[in-house]
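Model the whole thing, not chain by chain.
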Amino acid sequence: MDTKLLDAYADLIVKTGANVQPGQYVVIRTNVELEPFASLVARKCYQHGAKRVFVHWQSAKMDQVDYQEASEEVLSDVPSFEEEAHKFMADHTPILIWIDGDDPDGLKGVDANKVARIKANKYKVIGKYREAQENKAQWCIAGAPTKAWAKKVFPDLPVEEAIEALWKAILKTSRAENGNGIEEWEKHEEDLKERCEKLNSFHLTSLHYRSDRGTDLTIGLIPGVIFLGGGEKTDDGKFFQPNIPSEECFTSPWKGKAEGIVYATKPLVYNGQVIKNFSARFHNGKAIEVKAEEGEEVLKSILSLDEGASYLGECALVPFHSPINDTGILFYNTLYDENAACHLALGRGFTELYPNHEKYSLKELEKRGINSSLSHVDFMVGDDTLDITGTDENGKEIPIFVHGAWAF
Amino acid sequence: MDTKLLDAYADLIVKTGANVQPGQYVVIRTNVELEPFASLVARKCYQHGAKRVFVHWQSAKMDQVDYQEASEEVLSDVPSFEEEAHKFMADHTPILIWIDGDDPDGLKGVDANKVARIKANKYKVIGKYREAQENKAQWCIAGAPTKAWAKKVFPDLPVEEAIEALWKAILKTSRAENGNGIEEWEKHEEDLKERCEKLNSFHLTSLHYRSDRGTDLTIGLIPGVIFLGGGEKTDDGKFFQPNIPSEECFTSPWKGKAEGIVYATKPLVYNGQVIKNFSARFHNGKAIEVKAEEGEEVLKSILSLDEGASYLGECALVPFHSPINDTGILFYNTLYDENAACHLALGRGFTELYPNHEKYSLKELEKRGINSSLSHVDFMVGDDTLDITGTDENGKEIPIFVHGAWAF
């Protein structure tokens, strides 16, 4: 890939995405294979004034060895230095930049329930540090191709060509294909904000989803909780773009208020395993029945992680003809695929959408309807037959989506 | 490279090298590029009973960014989680397996003095944890090719062929080229032990080095300190091979007793920078003058690291026609190049060579002549003109090396 375009993409991530400010700590989380691009991003962080950049290397190959060869008990133990790293993050609230290139099949064959239980056990130790970081610092997820991911997306291409093709797709969907991503994102941000303002002006109390695939689901919304799109602000007012790309207007639904069934429209990749053609039936907000043609056990393990894992945490609206969907590429990566279609998420909701959220503890916000969980798993429900109809405070029905496109 | 040979090489490292025992912790330190081989080694560790394997990923590209972009003050600070990781190692004394594939030019252009000062500053915090690990657990260094290292050794080959050629050279010099490394090392161990027993029977008090290149150096030896080769034992008796390959019989000389000049016979790679054609003049044991055609500043930075860095810590005897030298390959990596020829080391000596060393503190051992330093830097002094003559307790001269080969 053209080094000038990569340089501009790194700038987009560091400036528009993470909005690195002088004196801040940065943690870059990335795959070991992405060393060249990650080190470019690190250099940009310093050049924008970062005090120090730490790197948290990830390796699905090494994770696979651990999960296959070590016991649940051993892996559930959080060693002192790992706990200290979480404490450091809670104390110093570094910016988190996640350069995601995970192999969609990276943990294929690993016992998903074991992984889920280990994560839940570890969360008992590290959860308090994670929660202490909520809305304190900027964060940004963006992608870069690893070999395995590129071959999954473009299985018929030789690996080097597949990587090149995935770079092109990443830059295109991130509005960075012409090297002027920072300007493109300023315009894009305005569009998303306008759309959210309109949605918030309706004062909706519920959304009803219906599609030809069989989806028929009503989701309650919390009074006052807003729709947000594009950039966000930390509690101390630093603006950032958490996702590059991002095409969604999203909100956190009312925990306990979802009735009906929803059918997924794209495969879901979770912890290196693929779940295909699945559905979930909700009652009193809880997913009480799930079915999948492939990966049903993995799907069930997602729900069993903790109490909040089987409740919804997000409703996101993305037109079917989004720039990402129009590429026609299935990325096998939530960052891209979630921005290709309307989606829901199981698990943790977004506390920052609650009015004056900084005045409440996480527990209080949960009582008020924002779901809390260790996990947050997006799955796609949008297609070109999806209608979404809102109901406002006065019981009036307002078309939001018609045939997979904005109704207004 | 043939997967069966790599599998057998991983077995050699884990079984013969580290001698992993049930219930032990293991830390694998390796380059991010070596993920595939490192994860194979990790799996072998578990299969030999390791309780848990942690990986400490290294990236010269990221180090370069840090050293170029962040201040000495910032980089000298040891963050709490990094200190905790050192403390964990001091408390739990895991086995250390270092799979070395460092780019010999990885830190080219970086201020070597800055690197040295940062390391010295950090050692003030982490030194006590490092020292607490001395002789407590097995450790093993072995190599695996990264792209940059392979291209440095085989600059005329395309990168994939260079990697293949370096794998072949690594397996050959590690006695692992036929997949029966474990048996080969049993024989090799016997040979080295016999050679060391002979050396120890002489009760030498000094070694005099002389070569056509101009070397004329006399080094004092501490009474009772032994020559060791091949395998070593931890304080609690676990046998291990710290270096794969290893061709040397080595001892720790008497700090303060070295007079004369020595000329290096191969380039030295230090912290990702190359030092070529250099000499060092010693007086009262200290390197008081160094000269180098290339990298003189780097060489001086080595000496300035701390008080012990300009004194000798090792004398190692390797015949000029060693299996490694006979490959005719310059590896630009100490693990291999040091086993190609007689070498000396500046910096830290080997406390485990002192009789009943476990009864003394590091400070006491230093008073008794074992040099102490943060660094230990090997450099090659052997060629086919090198004569080494020992003097025993009675003043009798004993030829040790003649024309670069064992005299006995």
